Amino acid sequence: MFLLVGCPVALYAMGGSPIPDRIPSWEEVHATLMRQDTDQSVFLATMFLICWGAWCLFIVTVCAEAINYLAGRSRPTVPRTVLPLQHLVRDLVATATLTFSAAASLATSTSASAAAHTHAATEIHNAAVPELGSHHQSSPRQDTPPQDPTEPEWTPLLANEPTAQPKPDQAAWQTHVVKRGETLWDLARRTYGSGDRYPKIFKKSRGIDQPDGLPALTDPDILHPGQRIRLPRPGAPNAAPSPSRAATPRASAHSAPSEQGKQSGTRTPAPPGSRSGKSTASSVRSPVVAPPADHSVSPVPAVPNDQDDAGSPLAISLPSGSRIGFGLAAALSVAVAATRLHRRRRRPLKSDPDSSVYIPEPPIAAPVLKARKAHLDTYVDREVPVPSDPELVREDLLTPEPDHLIVGTRDGQGVTVPLAGLSLGLSGDGAHAAARAITTELLAKAHRYRAEVVIPQADAQALFPGDDITDLSTALEGLIIKPSLSEAINHLEAELLHRGRVLEATEQPDVAALRADDPAEPLPTVLLVASIPANNARVQALTTLGCRFAIGVLALGPWTSGTSVELASDATVTGTHGLNAARFTGARLFHLTTGDAADMLRTIRTATGTETAVASWPTNADDPQPVPELHPAVTIVPPPRLSDEAPGPPVRLEVLGDVLLGTADGPIKTGLRQRARDLLAYLALHPDGVTRDRACADLWPDDSPGSIVSTFNTAVTNIRSVLRTATGLSGPMYVICSGSRYRIDPDVIDVDLWQLTTALADAQQATDDAARIRALTLVADRCGGEFASGLTQQWAEVQREHLRRVVGDALTELVRLLEEDDPEQALTVLEQAITRDPYAEPLYRDVMRLQIRLDRPEAVRRTYGLLSSRLAELDAEPDAETCRIVNSSTQ
After folding, report:
1. By the 8 A CB rule, do 660 and 654 touch?
2. pLDDT digits (tens, 9 = 90+) for 70-105
3. Burial (0-12, 13-18, 19+ Cβ within 10 Å), 852
4. Which among 472, 528, 458 is positioned nearest to 495, based on CA atoms?
5. Which of 375-380's residues contact partners 24+ apart within 8 Å by CB, and which partners?
6. For the segment 725-736, what is each residue's pLDDT rounded down to a tens digit?
7. How many Å apart are CA 522 and CA 514, to the nearest integer?
């Protein structure tokens, strides 16, 4: 106020008006400048004019920023010479921030608190990121659910009403930051209902000022991550679908990181019917981020079993009564994969062929495995290859920071909330269960600096009784437990100021734009989960700035500052009020029991590689601790041998890799149903046969007892029908039923797994090293791929892990027999073992020991580099023992 009003008043009082009452003549000006300034009148007049000019420049700068804000530009277009003055103003505002923040926190009355909050939030915003052009009313993310025409406009769950009302034309548009992979076609399809309306978005967005380092929008075929475009707000009059069909160029935002970490735009193919005639749509969803709702369609009637129109489950029910979303199931699937890879990495090699020593591994909880199966089943339903554990982990590397969560379902659609600026309160009997599900999902996605949960100690114990949450806080950087709410708020305010300084230094308007410009900057999405008293001005200020700084608040209890939702014991919404109350009306939120949450937290913890059981594992593979062997549920038994004179079977079944049937004419590609494939793989594990009840219990445990017999009989019928058609042989049964036991007929079907197990049995029964080497060499030749790689059932995963361990131990034994006389061949076998198990660190150590023995120090360093790159996918580094081997090679 002093600069705006006090400064001109003081100048007027001391020097009068700067505007002369008349224009002096040239003779008067010349005489004044040429005479001696003995009374300092000319000097004082000049100083007054300079002061008036500086004040006018200050007013012009403020007006420029305000105009840019109302016009939707990202930063004021002022000359570079004005920047020092602009920085001075920012420093003054930063000083005012501290004063008004303290005033807000000390206010006691409701009206005083609200007023202090509004002023403090504005000042904090200007101090942290002092650019009026950056919108603290961020546009809704592109992954919000479709709008129901009968509902009010969906806006981010902010704590306060907007502080400035846009102009009528601007009210229909919002600024959007382009993310990787986005196209003008898709954005038009989501907002207008038709991708053909992309020219309207392009025309409206061409004049927007872009951040430094990014070009202006000049070509609808080229977008850059971090660029800004304008989109019509949901529910605006101009956001109606259009029946027109025009040319359809499609711009896509791609990230092409260079050595300097810059982002470049890439021309991408257009959708079908466009000038390029190609499509870039991916058929495989991310394994972590929940599938966003499609904005191009109106809400559809409820889909049975809570599935979206693509067949992916929106909700997964667990036996305990928990109900989780697909996002949590996908994140847990990745956590299981990472857990297994960490266990493989550290499992000691079995060096003694006569030993039955095996290091047992703690079992993964049943709710987690059910969630994982539901996630993997989506690949099967879409007829997409099921990813292996390494593929899941590698794909997880490309998953961005979570910017939204699907927290429930409503009328067959997901209820999506943005995390940045979230201001949501949960109350009622089901509040803690719903908050537990939200927190657990975010913790499952928190690794690699993607997300962070800040929670006071008392609330952490209320949501997650026991020691699991405390143990997780020591192993996972994404969980921060503070002793009290006040300290949690202090942490968030410090983080807010840090982010403000980073954004100012990089000249970025918000965290989303900074992530697009510099993905290496660790600015995770932050969520405060706490019981918050009403009218807490400090928390309200955080939610007001949340969209800008990727911070959200989940209140445990009624929440008058944002959206408050009351839940029944089954997490059904019974009452709502606030800005977005209509969005939650009639919805049912996901929820977790304390037991299921504890199981999931343990898996999230083991996915980091910090597992308690690992401490008891021997670090020296030559001196393992005697622990009883633990066999899987099904033990592989070699089939009876055929005589050498017998002709080869007409059918071959492959289960090492994808389950495939073939004849002498080639593979059988049609006619075989998925459940028939499951049954064939299962029977391959039981050459001596298995009862129908046992097979049904393992294969289809979720099917109803009344239909299970029919399902089994249908699968057997399908196998026989397909094979009789393919071979032309109607006599064989192919699947024999003998004494209530079903088995594959070895006279007509040859199984690759049986050949492998026969070689393993020969190696175990060999009486001398030469015979053992021959048998183990056959194992190396026949080991093939993973067992039944396309099957997601638990019995298949158990056998997959068991077979991997058995084959790995056999290859290690072959290396032990070869390394003295033929080290080169031993290296070849070790490389094959590493190909099968690329994260097993003991294998790399054996390779490096052999390379040192062969005097190949460069090869040792290359092997170490390969191991380091593989472990980096698990956020791990080589052990100290491995480092000692590398260091010894250079001495």
Report:
1. yes
2. 554 544 445 556 566 555 555 454 444 444 443 444
3. middle
4. 528
5. 375/287, 375/326, 375/329, 375/330, 375/332, 375/333, 376/333, 376/792, 377/792, 378/285, 378/311, 378/312, 378/313, 378/326, 379/284, 380/674, 380/790, 380/792
6. 999 999 999 999
7. 10
Residue type, 786: E
Which pair of structure tokens corresponds to residue 109? 């009355």
Gap between the Cα atoms of 11 and 392, Å rounded: 69
Q: What is the largest CA-CA distance in the chain?
A: 129
Burial class of residue 835 (count of CB atoms within 10 Å of its CB; 0-12, 13-18, 19+): exposed
The DSSP result for 839-888, as a single string, is: T-HHHHHHHHHHHHHTT-HHHHHHHHHHHHHHHHTTT----HHHHHHHHH
Rounded to 5 degrees, φ, ψ at 41 are -70, -40
User: Which range (10-14, 54-58, 234-238, 247-251) has the least confidence?
Assistant: 247-251
623 has pLDDT over 50: no
Tell me the C-alpha to C-alpha distance, in Å, between residue 689 and each of 116, 679, 705. 77, 12, 22
- Of residues 412 and 136, which shows the higher confidence score? 412
User: From the centroid of its chain, how far is CA 537?
Assistant: 32
656 with 756: CB under 8 angstroms?
Answer: yes
Contact present, 330 and 355 (Cβ < 8 Å): no
- pLDDT category, 360, cuts 50, 70, 90? low
As a whole number, mean pLDDT of residues 145-163 equals: 37
Q: What integer pLDDT is reported at residue 576 of this predicted model?
A: 94
Neighbouring CB atoms inside 10 A of 732's CB total 18
Whether the model pTM is above 0.85: no
Q: Residue 743: beta bridge partners?
A: 736
Per-residue confidence (pLDDT) for residue 305, from 0 to 100: 43
In the chain, the amino acid numbered 491 is H
CA–CA separation, 404 and 293 (whole Å):
11
* Strand partners of residue 302: none
Locate 762 and state its tokens. 């020969």
3-state secondary structure 96-154: HHHHHHHHHHHCCCHHHHHHHHHHHHHHHHHHHCCCCCCCCCCCCCCCCCCCCCCCCCC
pLDDT tens readout for residues 437-457: 999 999 999 988 899 999 999
Please give the pLDDT value at position 691: 94
Residue 553 contacts residue 157 (beta carbons within 8 Å):
no
- Alpha-carbon gap, residue 681 to 656, rounded angstroms: 9
User: Which residues is 315 bridged to in the sheet?
Assistant: 325
Residue 136 corresponds to which amino acid?
Answer: H
Which tokens sit at 677? 């494939």
Contacts of 96 (CB under 8 A, 6+ apart): 123, 127
Q: What whole-number distance in Å separates Cα of residue 421 and Cα of residue 432? A: 21
Give, in order, the Cα–Cα distances in Å from 325 to each of 329, 372, 590: 6, 12, 6
C-alpha dist (Å) from residue 829 to 392, 500, 810, 819: 26, 55, 10, 10
DSSP 323: E
Average pLDDT score over the chain: 76
Q: How far apart are CA 786 and CA 808, in angstroms?
A: 12
Angle at 743 between CA 741 and CA 745, to 5 degrees: 135
Instruction: State pLDDT tens for residues 747-772.
Output: 999 999 999 999 999 998 999 999 99
- In this model, does residue 637 exceed pLDDT 90? no
Tokens of 221: 């075929």
Number of other residues whose CB lies within 10 A of the CB of residue 232:
20
The model's confidence at residue 875, banded by pLDDT at 50, 70 and 90, is: confident
* DSSP per position, 474-486: HH-TTEEEESSHH
What is the spatial distance between Cα 563 and Cα 157, in angstroms, rounded to a whole number?
Answer: 7
- Do residues 420 and 452 touch, judged by C-beta distance below 8 A? no
